[in-house]
TrEMBL record:
It comes from Salinimicrobium catena. It comes from the Bacteria. This is Collagen-like protein.
Length: 186
């Protein structure tokens, strides 16, 4: 009998202890200023260089030399190759960019590819080919311009942007062509 009496008392107390909320009180004072957040905007810069036997047909980009943005291990690095121009806008050339890797088909069924890899410290752009790289013409090796975009890990997910579409990435980052630093690799 005691357990039933105890249970009934508990249920009765639980139902009678609940009441309607009172009126909403006045707003409290402003809290202290929080610490500044991290820079979630992407960073974009151009690098130009030559692929030679001396650099083993590789362009090495140390992020610390070109930007003060901390690149996290989870961030995404995209590299685009400037492949030409498509007219002018405001007296300036409109460049055509393609996301790496880019494969070119050479005479005799041979192939050559621009590719890259990266860590959160650096990026390496390199040539790979089914032919001796020393036989490639200057159109593939000299004065090559690459645009490197460092994006927060959740950038593509949060914005829904197609990262293979250069124009969509630049629009989502709200970066103008004139704001992109031009750097030459030695």
């Amino acid at each position: 009998m005691k357990p039933i009496y105890f249970l009934l008392s508990f249920v009765l107390i639980a139902f009678t202890s609940c009441s309607d909320d009172g009126e909403i009180g006045p707003q409290g004072p402003q809290g202290p200023q929080g610490e500044p957040g991290v820079n979630i905007a992407g960073t974009v810069f151009d690098v130009q260089g030559d692929f030679t036997d001396a650099n083993e047909y590789t362009l090495f980009v140390d992020f610390a030399e070109f930007t003060d943005v901390e690149v996290l291990e989870s961030d995404v690095v995209l590299v685009y190759l400037r492949v030409g121009t498509d007219g002018e806008a405001g007296g300036e050339p409109v460049y055509v960019w393609r996301l790496l890797p880019q494969t070119y088909y050479l005479e005799g069924g041979e192939t050559m590819q621009y590719n890259y890899d990266y860590t959160f410290f650096d990026a390496t752009v390199f040539l790979d080919a089914s032919v001796d790289l020393a036989t490639l013409g200057p159109e593939f090796t000299d004065d090559q311009v690459f645009r490197i975009a460092i994006l927060p890990a959740d950038f593509a997910q949060d914005t829904g942007v197609d990262v293979s579409n250069y124009e969509a990435v630049m629009s989502a980052l709200d970066i103008q062509e004139s704001e992109i630093p031009q750097l030459e690799l030695q």
